[in-house]
Design goal:
Radius of gyration: 19 Å
Strand order of the largest sheet: 1-4-5-8-9-10-11
Order of helices and strands: HHHHEHEEHHEHHHEHEEEHEHEHEH
Strand content: 5-15%
CATH architecture: Alpha-Beta Barrel
Structural class: alpha/beta
CATH class: Alpha Beta
Helix content: 40-55%
Amino acid sequence: MSVALKNDLLLRALLREPVARRPIWLMRQAGRYLPEYRATRAKAGNFLALCTNPQLACEVTLQPIDRYPLDAAILFSDILTIPHAMKLGLEFEGGDGPVFQRPVRCSADIDALGLPDPGSELKYVIDAVALVRRELGGRIPLIGFAGSPWTVATYMVEGGSSKSYSYIKGMMYAAPRDLHRLLELLGKATILYLNAQIAAGAQAVMIFDTWGGILTPRQYQEFSLHYMEQIISSLTREAQGRRVPSIVFTKGGGAWLRKIASIGCDAVGVDWTTDLSAARALVEGRVALQGNLDPAALLAPPERLRAETLRVLDSFGAGPGHVFNLGHGITPGVDPERVALLVDTVRGYVPA
């Protein structure tokens, strides 16, 4: 793990240091759009088996790195590993997403939850981090990640995916103390989990707050941002003599970018509903920005994709502090050649 990085563009950009070009990595860059991923998943048997096998998780993490000249690898895992370790009966049913056999709906359910030990219940993730880091051999940095306490709690309380979020919003209004107890526990678990990933070799970490955008501004501050701030303040800041940058991404959180930038993270992810020029004005140079091409642009004809990519790059403008990414993850039906075009366009970009 002491091998010097050959390409540290991502780490420098996240810290708003000057870089020769915009670094690029993509959310869900390892996924179903790649035929090699589908083959490995078939070999694993199912998604959960793939996530919990360090060798196969490493293999999948490296697949897009071997195919494209990306500037970072992100660990192949899932945001629901912590509740999986809490023995809630997590299953992934076909294309319907995650399902918990034992959802968390009341105070007694919360009382029954333990604090997972990353070195035992989540050892498969930590082993995968160490394995990927070794296999990368210093080519590019490795990003570790976790779901935000609010986002993870939504799945735990709803029992899976939801459109109305009636159970967790019901708890939020009827039993806010219970919800805070759950979020506090998840916050502690996430701190342990991310710091264990850093100790194993993750060189940057990201918090995915996928469902923060379903909240009102006041609720977002109380039930989501507060706990992400606690996590950020407790992260390991330096490893192997180098800063470990942190990224916070709230999907649908464009209205709160100024507040997100104030919690101590190094970078803020921006979804495709906010122009980077507006985001840059809001954060006032306090953090780097990551984003934010609409993932659906990868379905466009090549020239339209190239134009949309250049528009995002131009929107940020000149100067340090931008990591190119999508505004959310790659969707399964994308042609891998479109991703190749996207990466080449970003790598060849020269600001006007």
